[in-house]
Amino acid sequence: MRLNRFLYVFLLLGSFFIFSCNNDDDGSEPVPPRDRGEQEIADQEAIQEYLETHFYNYEDFQNPSEDFDYNVVIDTINEANADKIPLSESDLLESKTFTYEGVDYKLYVLKIREGVSEQPKFSDSTFVSYRGELLSRTMFDNSVSPVWFDLTQTIPGFAQGIVEFKGASGFVMREDNTVEWNNDYGIGAIFLPSGLGYFANGQAAIPAYSPLVFLINLYGVNEADHDRDGIPSWMEDLDDDMILVNDDTDGDGRPNFMDTDDDGDFIPTREEIIIEEDGSITFPDGDGDGTPDYLDPDYVEGQ
Predict the structure, then answer these.
(1) CB–CB of 124/89 below 8 Å?
(2) C-alpha neighbours within 13 Å on the C-beta side of residue 48
(3) What is the pTM of this model?
(4) pLDDT tens string 212-256
């Protein structure tokens, strides 16, 4: 589903916290970061304990009231609610592995409702409402109204979790110009280790080496073409590692997804591909060497 331009203006309202950033230099002696592999082991222990001692409001989803807001709420299991099913035993909890900075990280996705429309790629823009929490259940950020996120600019774990959901089938514009989404959008939670979050770079409300929890509703998806060269950004991930910044064919310092001339032959990428009427893309290989023209600096048509 392509959202109209009216909705896309909300892109500017994206949250500060989900985007990757570093602390400012305060002049103190820098502390070497912890070993990523060792920290991942510690984070997994903390996340497992969390999943075993917390539950989500599954009963609200099983029998929703007329005024239910379809937001995920997580609480601690204690004597008063000892009969609740912990997150670790939910049939809706899945895990996935993502390799980042040389470490195989495990994150968990609670897929309460997958959604029905487009499923985002790791480089797309997504329209999301969310609540961010620490394992202590302390909230560090939230947005009740959905906001646009360019997934290439978010922390890796957030992007890797969001791509497991789909958007809504559509929406209607009310008379007051507000939007009402069809009630079939993706709903769930993401539990990620610090290595896929901010790791050693603590934020104002997030201590360093903190695993994070995101409670999310995914409403819409826009396929991204960051450099507008005709090739969707996800297709410019040449090594299939779901990281775009390390794909730079001509070595000019601009990764392919931000480079309008990927091979540096002074012929724009858009002129070296064929976009069919149905939107599919053909990648000609004029000299038959196995490298498509838009990535081949040695091939120039007619020479």
Answers:
(1) no
(2) 7
(3) 0.88
(4) 999 999 999 999 999 999 999 999 999 999 999 999 999 999 999
Q: Cβ distance 41 to 182 under 8 Å?
A: no
pLDDT in tens, 9-64: 444 444 445 665 555 555 567 789 999 999 999 999 999 999 999 999 999 999 99
Which residue from 95, 104, 125, 44 is spatially nearest to 241, judged by alpha carbons? 104
d(CA 52, CA 171): 37
Tokens matching residue 51: 């999943």
Mean pLDDT of 62-91: 96
Is residue 128 within 8 Å of residue 167, measured between CB atoms? no
Dist. CA 250–CA 241, nearest whole Å: 19
Using alpha carbons, list the distances in angstroms from residue 81 to 55, 75, 93, 188: 10, 10, 20, 22
**CA distances for 198 relative to 8, 18, 51, 221, angstroms:** 27, 9, 21, 25
- Could you give all domains of the chain from N- to C-terminal order, each with its CATH number? 5-222 (3.10.50.40), 225-303 (no CATH)
Decide: 115 and 169 in contact? Cβ < 8 Å.
no
How far apart CA 65 and CA 60 sit, in angstroms, is 7
Contact 171, 179 (CB under 8 A): yes
pLDDT digits (tens, 9 = 90+) for 87-100: 999 999 999 999 99
